[in-house]
Design brief:
InterPro entries: AAA+_ATPase, ABC_transporter-like_ATP-bd, ABC_transporter-like_CS, ABC_transporter_ATP-bind, P-loop_NTPase
Structural class: alpha/beta
Shape: globular
Number of domains: 1
Order of helices and strands: EEEHEEHHHEHEHEEHH
Strand content: 25-35%
Strand order of the largest sheet: 5-6-7-3-8-9
Radius of gyration: 18 Å
CATH architecture: 3-Layer(aba) Sandwich
CATH class: Alpha Beta
Bound molecules: adenosine-5'-triphosphate
Keywords: ATP-binding, Cell membrane, Membrane, Nucleotide-binding, Transport
CATH topology: Rossmann fold
Distance between the termini: 38 Å
Helix content: 25-40%
Low-confidence stretches: none
Protein name: ATP-binding cassette domain-containing protein
Number of strands: 9
CATH superfamily: P-loop containing nucleotide triphosphate hydrolases
Family: Belongs to the ABC transporter superfamily.
Mean pLDDT: 92
GO molecular function: ATP binding
Number of helices: 8
């Protein structure tokens, strides 16, 4: 099994706030790891650390996933004020694909997420669900080894949620997936392993079946119970 990330006693701080506290975790290639926990528990910070967007202040962090092999999706994706096709093509061009080839690849990439009808539309005028699908097309076109997703369906309506989740499951095929979610149904469907965070600390790290069916630390048990209500 290829190790992609190792954290050993990692702290991440923002001024006086310790967003991650003594986090120890190893993630191997092919795993599907769900990060769950209340607002502010450190899920986004952990994803941003994995993606190289924030530094750690203490402990050891090693990433064996090259930056260009990772793609990250945010809850509200940032779209350039340009057509959908250009948004995809630019991402490819920035990674070294010649412009013409990048333009040609944009059509099939958008078709894969069902957006062939909006190739020429300004991406900022698309609906939330369409923008998330476009963000996925943009990430997917890069053929990343790792997909890091920060609550990718949180702002979508139930139909768009289902559609985007189905696409995520497909995109995650053969890849490593690390995602933050408040949707426990989604966690059950997509994850093989669950990491529960509270106040920046990892309180549980279990295979998905054990997380939902086995004994849990009290804090995690109460969180799951509350989320299921
Ligand atoms: N750039 C920043 N500057 C200052 N504090 C920050 C910054 N980013 C995160 N924090 C703080 O770090 C802590 C962890 O935040 P983080 O966004 O990682 O939590 P989260 O579990 O992803 O929350 P949510 O479910 O609301 O997205 C919070 O107290 C947050 O306010």
């Amino acid at each position: 099994m290829t190790r992609l990330y190792s954290l050993d006693g990692v702290d991440v701080r923002f001024g006086r706030v310790t967003a991650l506290h003594g986090a120890s975790l190893a993630i191997d290639a092919g795993e599907r790891v769900a990060l769950i926990g209340a607002n502010g528990s450190g899920k986004s910070t952990l994803l941003r650390l994995l993606h190289g967007l924030v530094p750690h202040a203490a402990g050891q962090f090693t990433s064996h996933a090259p930056q260009r092999e990772q793609a990250m999706l945010f809850q509200r994706p940032h779209m350039l004020r340009a057509t959908s096709a250009t948004n995809v093509a630019l991402a490819l061009w920035l990674r070294g694909t010649p412009w013409r080839a990048a333009r040609e690849a944009a059509g099939p990439a958008l078709a894969r997420v069902g957006l062939e009808g909006v190739l020429a539309r300004n991406a900022r005028t698309l609906s939330g669900g369409q923008q998330q699908r476009l963000a996925l097309a943009r990430a997917w076109a890069l053929h990343p080894q790792v997909l890091l997703l920060d609550e990718p369906t949180a702002s979508l309506d139930p139909t768009a949620k289902r559609e985007v989740e189905a696409l995520l499951a497909e995109a995650a095929n053969g890849r490593t997936l690390v995602f933050a979610s408040h949707n426990l149904g989604q966690v059950k469907r997509l994850a093989s392993r669950v990491v529960y965070l509270e106040h920046g600390r990892i309180l549980a790290d279990l295979p998905v079946h054990d997380f939902f069916h086995g004994p849990l630390p009290e804090e995690a048990r109460l969180f799951v119970k509350g989320e299921l209500v």
